[in-house]
Amino acid sequence: MADLRTTFAGIQSPNPFWLASAPPTNSGAQVHRAFEAGWGGAVWKTIGAPVLNVSNRYGAWHYGSQRMLAINNVELISDRPLETNLREISEVKRAWPDRAVIVSAMVESKPEAWHDIVRKIEDTGADGIELNYGCPHGMSERGMGAAVGQVPEYCEQISRWVMQAAHIPVIMKLTPNVTNVALPARAGVAAGVNGLSLINTVNSIVGVDLNSLELTPNIAGKGGHAATLGRQ
Ligand SMILES: Cc1cc2nc3c(=O)[nH]c(=O)nc-3n(C[C@H](O)[C@H](O)[C@H](O)COP(=O)(O)O)c2cc1C
Question: Which residue's alpha carbon is at the smallest distance from atom 6 of ligand 1?
């Protein structure tokens, strides 16, 4: 069999196929199943301060009589308790020492908050940390995610705080919702991050059906037209 072993940013894995930080990496059970299926690595669903996610986690684009022409991510970071995630991360890493377990993190823009989350992640035995500077909604309004990734100076400052505390490789994940993605990338490199991850969610517009309060964007022109047709 071909040898697909890779080393990325100093992190070894048996193959280069890693799950991105998203719903499939939200729990230990899911990452266990992914590794059983052969994935070489997984970036855990972003952890940080507790949030409340809405259900549905996607906004659907209906058009004319076609349902779900496209779907858009409207999920925030993990809504499970931090301690639960940290415990499951260490269990997964213990069970799968040869796989790459990376933990995505996002906390408020204070050095002590970043130092604290870095220490907690390292205590799990994880192989690396990914800085989520790309979440485009919900978190960016709170000054995190894309609110950081869109300002190179913030990327550099926060990455420096992280690098002060980190002993394992750090990957900075970029937002595509900028004019020139090279500028935040260079800022991260200047701060000493070990790798870059492209890309987080591309912004799009989602609407809300005011009758059902469901995410049902209308791209057909007249009020509610596409959403109504989509439901027939
Ligand atoms: C429902 C959903 C939730 C996501 N949650 C996270 C997250 O918690 N952290 C993160 O860094 N990226 C998150 N992402 C972004 C993905 O990791 C990925 O960067 C993005 O979907 C672009 O890759 P793709 O074109 O392969 O989907 C999420 C994406 C989706 C669709």
Answer: 22
